[in-house]
């Protein structure tokens, strides 16, 4: 889009000062636009080109606010599933956003249950043949061939179940919840129905059985299922930060074909997987994933600002020190506990090895 390119090319980045990171507004918006689905592309272009209250186009400050709104009200809520949840969401500068927020708040949407849903897990296990959808390893907790490779399986949500949890009597929490879903459905229109009926988060189409370690990487958007154009066939992609151990069991060509093994349950929705893949790829290519990991991990470990003052305050304000939520409501009780973090030197070696694996495949 010529007009979009012209507007972004005219953007004047802020000069780095006071320890603030470089202004990546232009690159952020350009890359995001290339990756969004058609409806999301159209809406992002409008947000970049159409000014608030009849103004011809947003100024540079409005574009910076738009980026922070997407970071705090879409990327961090998706990325922080199972960990810290955002409390401060920067409002979008686009016209009419206040009315949209009030509209979704007025629908009296009910949060989903925090309790495990054993029936839902059972349905997914039957549908997926009691196997990991990525590696085809059998569940160690269920009958399997004697010579079969086995693992601990968990039911992984594609759209995080934490996005359906909020305090309906807490005005601030309801407001935060509404702002997040307004962003999600604006840039991923397929999520509109889910935004108004959160029970759709806990359905078979939004879940798949995965090895417990792969599930963690999937939840952190370091592993995605990318559509190949063949119905129900996906190419598995992994990004820097994904442990090399679990991916050794992936198919050599990284191709998997989903099918219903038992029952009449629907397969994971390709559009939900597309949303997940889009966000995962953007987080990797933009470097946003790594910076968000640092902020989220800092709060998990310290619960506050770094003494050195090195914490990115703007990013930090978008993450709270609320109690940890489980990464998934359907985790197997026998699942192994997370291992200790590796040292930085090991992480660097691991990242190089993973990049090599992706290039080789």
Automatic annotation (TrEMBL):
Descriptive protein name: HNH nuclease domain-containing protein
Ranges where the record places region Disordered: 1-25, 40-59, 80-101, 324-361
Domain HNH nuclease: 132-226
Domain of life of the native organism: Eukaryota
Bias-annotated ranges (Basic and acidic residues): 43-59
Organism: Penicillium argentinense
InterPro entries referenced in this protein's UniProt entry, alphabetically: HNH_nuc
One of the Pfam families matching this protein, by short name: HNH_2
């Amino acid at each position: 889009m010529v007009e979009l390119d012209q507007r972004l090319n005219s953007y004047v980045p802020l000069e780095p000062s006071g320890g603030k990171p470089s202004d990546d507004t232009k690159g952020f918006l350009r890359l995001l636009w290339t990756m969004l689905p058609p409806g999301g592309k159209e809406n992002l272009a409008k947000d970049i080109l159409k000014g608030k209250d009849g103004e011809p186009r947003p100024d540079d400050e409005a574009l910076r606010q738009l980026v922070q709104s997407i970071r705090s009200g879409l990327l961090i809520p998706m990325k922080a599933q199972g960990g810290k949840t955002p409390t401060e969401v920067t409002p979008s500068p686009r016209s009419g956003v206040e009315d949209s927020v009030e509209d979704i708040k007025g629908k009296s949407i009910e949060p989903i249950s925090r309790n495990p849903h054993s029936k839902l897990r059972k349905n997914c296990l039957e549908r997926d043949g009691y196997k990991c959808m990525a590696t085809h390893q059998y569940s160690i907790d269920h009958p399997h061939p004697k010579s079969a490779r086995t693992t601990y399986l968990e039911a992984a949500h594609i759209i995080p179940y934490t996005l359906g949890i909020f305090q309906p009597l807490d005005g601030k929490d309801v407001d935060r919840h509404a702002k997040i879903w307004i962003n999600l459905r604006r840039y991923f229109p397929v999520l509109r129905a889910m935004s108004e009926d959160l029970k759709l988060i806990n359905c078979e189409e939004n879940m798949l059985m995965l090895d417990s370690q792969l599930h963690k990487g999937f939840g952190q958007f370091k592993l995605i299922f990318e559509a190949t154009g063949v119905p129900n066939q996906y190419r598995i992609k992994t990004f820097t930060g994904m442990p090399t151990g679990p991916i050794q069991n992936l198919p050599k060509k990284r191709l998997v074909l989903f099918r219903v093994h038992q029952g009449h349950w629907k397969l994971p929705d390709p559009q939900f997987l597309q949303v997940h893949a889009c966000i995962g790829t953007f987080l990797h290519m933009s470097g946003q994933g790594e910076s968000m990991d640092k902020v989220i991990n800092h709060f998990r470990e310290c619960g506050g600002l770094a003494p050195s003052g090195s914490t990115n305050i703007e990013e930090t304000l978008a993450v709270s020190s609320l109690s940890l939520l489980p990464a998934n409501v359907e985790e197997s009780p026998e699942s192994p506990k997370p291992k200790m973090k590796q040292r930085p030197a090991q992480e660097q070696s691991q990242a190089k090895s993973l990049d090599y694996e992706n290039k080789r495949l």
